[in-house]
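Design a sequence for this backbone.
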């Protein structure tokens, strides 16, 4: 049975697109069945509609975090989602939601965690003066950008890098990393052992 993937996204949705394409091409044995966004005009929702994927806008106005997360959980259950991908999703998920779905939620972050968590991963790395940055795909736990790491890809910095140029190069690697992580998950090749994620095909 192909993996039923639900994607949470707040913006542009290029990572979402990478997953949709890889599913359609048969690279990932799965299907994106629903995209949920907290932003009504998120381009990610339009991308979903363009591919006949269910697009759901969930308005957070006037809702507590718990109520909002419950609304997401209702969609996840109704669509029988097996894997929840956070792809540029800018809201924090509450602890009850994360506990309930631990091991079934992954996130893509544009820096080499545990360095530079938070929403300015690329800018923070550049300003710190690192020579290598990159991206991280990890399982989501209760901490921000904190859960067990599935895989990382490095991106060397250039002398003339700006936040934009660095973000662009990291984004290319994000698409590759996310796709690979989702594929491994869909193939049942990931096992969480404490903080470590074992890639079973590499053992
Ligand atoms: C990516 O850089 C992702 O790592 C970060 O937000 C950005 C989303 O890009 N969390 P997109 O919406 O997938 O194009």
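Sequence:
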């Amino acid at each position: 049975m192909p993996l039923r993937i639900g994607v949470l996204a707040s913006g542009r949705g290029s990572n979402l697109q990478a997953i949709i394409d890889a599913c359609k091409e048969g690279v990932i044995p799965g299907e994106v069945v629903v995209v949920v966004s907290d932003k009504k005009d998120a381009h990610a929702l339009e991308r979903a509609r363009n591919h006949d994927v269910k697009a759901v806008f969930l308005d957070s106005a006037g809702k507590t975090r718990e109520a909002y997360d419950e609304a997401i959980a209702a969609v996840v259950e109704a669509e029988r989602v097996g894997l929840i991908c956070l792809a540029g999703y800018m809201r924090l998920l509450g602890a009850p939601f994360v506990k309930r779905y631990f091991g079934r939620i992954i996130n893509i972050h544009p820096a080499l965690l545990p360095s530079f968590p938070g929403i300015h991963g690329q800018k923070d790395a550049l300003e710190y003066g690192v020579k290598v940055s990159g991206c991280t795909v990890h399982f989501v736990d209760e901490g921000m950008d904190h859960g067990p790491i599935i895989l990382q890809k490095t991106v060397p910095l250039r002398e003339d890098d700006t936040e934009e140029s660095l973000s662009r190069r990291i984004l290319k690697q994000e698409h590759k990393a996310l796709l690979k992580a989702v594929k491994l998950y869909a193939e049942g090749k990931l096992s969480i052992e404490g903080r470590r994620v074992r890639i079973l095909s590499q053992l």
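Helices lie at 14-24, 43-50, 65-78, 95-100, 121-128, 163-186.
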